[in-house]
Amino acid sequence: MKRWNPPTDAQMQKDYADHKSWFKSVASLVQADPRLAEVSRDSESWKRAREAGVSQEKIDQYVHLLEQLDANESLASVYGIGKACLITADIVVGLFDNGVIKGYVLKPSDPRPLVEDLENWPKETADATTAYKPVADGWYLFEVHH
Questions:
Q1: Alpha-carbon torsion 68, 69, 72, 78, what sign?
Q2: Buried-most residue among 20, 37, 47, 79 (CB within 10 A)?
């Protein structure tokens, strides 16, 4: 990912508001064919999708949206988190897999805990590894500490 710091909640909410139609298109494509949720901007994921029966036209549409939203260069999702993820930051700190994954998730499986500010989790969420913040239309911001 290009960023060394995750984008702020405010920036992500603005990006959503500015590009709401793109998010709506992502949701529509994934609802029509859930296999697209496994597609990233990595050409290997396109090959797997084609082999699974997804049309090249749908793959091209989906990848174009990912490019417009500057999401999913290599990661398509955080396993089991929701119907579709648009990861905007995957930051590893140190020699081990410690860091942050932040992005948007469509209709998360279990959006708890809900927080007001992903940049400053409340003390009662100290044991959580993932937190969510509602955006609109079934989309949430999420942050995973790993």
A1: negative
A2: 37
Domain total for the chain? 1
Tokens of 129: 């590894």
pLDDT at 5 over 90: no
**Domain assignment of residue 48, yes or no:** yes
DSSP 111-122: --SB-S-TTS--
The verdict on residue 3 lying in a domain is: no
For the stretch 87-99, pLDDT in tens is 887 776 655 566 8
**Which residues is 101 bridged to in the sheet?**
90, 144
In a domain, 4, yes or no: no
Q: Where are the beta strands (DSSP E) in the chain?
A: 82-93, 98-108, 130-136, 139-145
Q: What is the DSSP letter of 103?
A: E
Distance, CA of 136 to CA of 17 (rounded, Å): 9
More confident residue, 78 or 43: 43
Region of 109 (left: φ > 0; alpha: ψ -120 to 50; beta: rest) is alpha
For residue 137, give the H/E element and its range.
none
Against a cut of 0.85, is the pTM above it?
yes
What pLDDT, on the 0 to 100 scale, is given for residue 24?
Answer: 97
| Residue 109 located in a structural domain | yes
Q: What span, in angstroms and rounded, lies between the C-alpha atoms of 116 and 102?
A: 15
